[in-house]
Design goal:
The chain contains ten helices and 14 strands. It is an alpha/beta fold and about 325 residues long. It has a nine-stranded mixed sheet, with helices on both faces. Strands 3-2-6-7-14 form a five-stranded mixed sheet.
Length: about 325
């Protein structure tokens, strides 16, 4: 066993408070769903490897350095023909966080099954994959499926976070992708809207508890539905578990779902109960909202600073290119 294995695109992040058209300077950072989860796991003391595909450029250098600096074992694939993707995040005056991705044709979108080293999936204690990589390109999707099949055949548990991106894939096509991976997974994570999409329900059809149970039935008995400011519910082997949101003052909600997933997985790997895992996950997701950046380390003292009813939902828009 070599610990948790994950892979996916991480981009150079340019972030600013205000609209891009009004800014003279922006903060340089990095961000990507799978590396965010890897960082969260590493901080929890879990051995974790992230396979990243970046350009042979300074942006790629920054991505690899940032992830490695957080204690993640980085396996780098450098593409001399494609550039590292770029993400722009604007904190607008009305409270929205607008995120624009420039990733079409990027190095990270060009994952192929050959980018997964021989034996690495089979030696992992857990494989974590995301629906984002399924939607990036045909070869990226083939890579996810190859990894899932290899893990399944080797008896390696699989964790799947739906992470639907409607600008990358339409709902009907995405549903097929997600259900295929969920059927081989040991645990599936989804927002309530994503759970409805995977299950083929109409908007607002099905309460949170039934969504969790139905998603778990698809995913070998274990599913966690993230509800944002309303907390989370989990269906684990037919038993429902619920956790209210941890109250915080929201600064930046991007990356909260990844922190939630990382904390749940760390707790589960440590043998914690589902209720303990939900407690850790809810706190981690809330704390991630209190700092600028997708994975920057928050201050635990930020928990409980506002009443849950007053939590800023901080709606964020996503535009994928």
């Amino acid at each position: 066993m070599t610990g948790v294995l994950t892979f996916g695109e991480t981009m150079l992040l340019l972030a600013g408070r205000g609209a891009l058209t009004d800014l003279d300077t922006m903060r340089v950072d990095t961000g990507g769903a799978e590396s965010n989860v890897a960082i969260g796991l590493a901080r929890a003391g879990v051995d974790v490897t992230w396979i990243g595909r970046v350009g042979a450029d300074p942006a790629g250098d920054r991505v690899l350095a940032d992830v490695a600096a957080e204690g993640v074992d980085v396996v780098a694939v450098r593409d001399p023909e494609r550039s590292t993707g770029i993400m722009v995040k604007e904190r607008l005056a009305d409270g929205r966080t607008r995120v624009t991705y420039h990733r079409r044709g990027s190095a990270g979108s060009a994952f192929t099954p050959g980018d997964l080293p021989s034996g690495m999936v089979e030696r992992a204690s857990l494989l974590h994959v995301s629906g984002i990589t399924l939607a990036l390109s045909e070869t990226a999707r083939e890579t996810v499926h190859a990894a899932v099949v290899r893990a399944h055949d080797a008896g390696v548990p699989i964790a799947f976070d739906v992470n639907h991106r409607p600008k990358l894939v339409d709902d009907v096509t995405g549903r097929g992708y997600y259900r295929a991976v969920a059927a081989r997974s040991s645990v599936v994570f989804a927002g309530d809207d994503e759970a409805r999409l995977v299950l083929g329900h109409d908007e607002d059809d099905g309460d949170e508890e039934s969504l969790a149970h139905e998603l778990a039935a698809l995913a070998n008995g274990r599913a966690v539905v993230k509800l944002g400011s309303r907390g989370a519910v989990a269906s684990i082997d037919g038993v429902l578990h619920r956790r209210a949101a941890s109250p915080v003052a929201v600064v930046d909600p991007v990356g909260a779902g990844d922190a939630f997933v990382a904390a749940w997985l760390a707790a589960d790997l440590a043998g914690d109960s589902p209720d303990q895992a939900l407690d850790r996950a809810a706190d981690a997701g809330a704390l991630a909202c209190t700092v600028d950046g997708d994975w920057r380390r928050p201050d635990p003292a930020a928990l409980g600073v506002v009443d849950p009813a007053g939590i800023d939902h901080a709606v964020h828009d996503r535009v994928d290119r």
